[in-house]
Every structure is written in C-alpha cells, then in structure tokens.
Amino acid sequence: MLPIGLMQTWASVQHGMWYARSAEFMTQNIIHIFVWLRVIGDTIFSVGALALGWFILGLKTGWSLTDQPLPYADDNLQKT
C-alpha cells in the first residue's frame, strides 16, 4: 500500500507520528479509496496463485500429464 505509506510519511514529517497513525488520518476519504482500489490487485494476485496451485497439484497427482506426445513434438523430433 505504497500511496498510503507515502501519505503517512508526509503526515508524520509535518504533524508527527501520532497524527499519521491516528484514527483521524486513517478515516480520510482518500485512504478509503486507496484501500478499496487494492482489492482489484489482490483479486488478480489471488486468481494467479490459485491457478498456479491448481497447475502444481495437477503435476503432482499426474492428471495433467498425458502418455501421448503432443502433435508438434513429433515434427521437431523428425527435423533433427
């Protein structure tokens, strides 16, 4: 949450650390907007992490592997 951290740093320099960590500072509208904007990135990250986990689970259990070679794999073997 880089934007909020930068805002807190600036508020800490200007008014003191007590203000940057206070409820008055943390309940500003811009802080709430940045918190809700983070949901978009968190959702994308979560979907990617779940997809990676699903892929690794498939490799570990073997259900994502096939015994038959891929069609383009035969072409590459014959050219060499």
TrEMBL record:
The keyword Membrane belongs to this UniProt entry's keyword annotation: yes
Keyword Membrane: yes
Segments traversing the membrane: 35-57
Protein's name according to its UniProt entry: Uncharacterized protein
Organism: Brevibacillus aydinogluensis
Keywords assigned by UniProt, alphabetized: Membrane, Transmembrane, Transmembrane helix
